[in-house]
Specification:
Distance between the termini: 31 Å
Order of helices and strands: HEHEEEEE
Strand order of the largest sheet: 2-1-6
Shape: elongated
Radius of gyration: 17 Å
Structural class: alpha+beta
Largest sheet: 3 strands, mixed
Number of helices: 2
């Protein structure tokens, strides 16, 4: 389950930022997770609870914002929303698409005390 290592990286990032910006406690963490990121939000939420124990983020609320997938269609020269890799363009049904969004996993916001 790679979500545990992702969560540990998030905790490490929070602790680095706590030192750099002088805060002692995190009460909320907001993550943006792309639908194509291969991250399971439920597993990430569980891993977050486990990896934050004993850290400055222990007990923090985890908010997950789903980021839809987007792709550039070479057929109609438009950016379109797709459900998964390999989908055809919903506008022109063309098959030549380049994914442009939905793969991200980022800490969008920290609420600190």
């Amino acid at each position: 389950m790679h979500e545990m290592s992702i969560c540990q990286s998030i905790v490490d990032l929070i602790e680095e930022q706590a030192l750099a910006q002088s805060f002692d406690r995190v009460s909320r963490v907001c993550l943006e997770i792309g639908v194509l990121s291969c991250v399971e939000p439920g597993a990430l939420a569980f891993g977050f609870e486990v990896t934050t124990r004993g850290s400055i983020a222990e007990g923090a609320t985890l908010d997950i914002v789903d980021v839809p997938a987007s792709a550039w269609c070479f057929g109609c020269n438009e950016t379109v929303e797709i459900a998964r890799r390999g989908d055809d363009c919903p506008r022109c049904q063309g098959a030549r698409l380049r994914v442009t969004g939905g793969e991200e996993l980022r800490v969008k916001e920290l609420e600190v005390v």
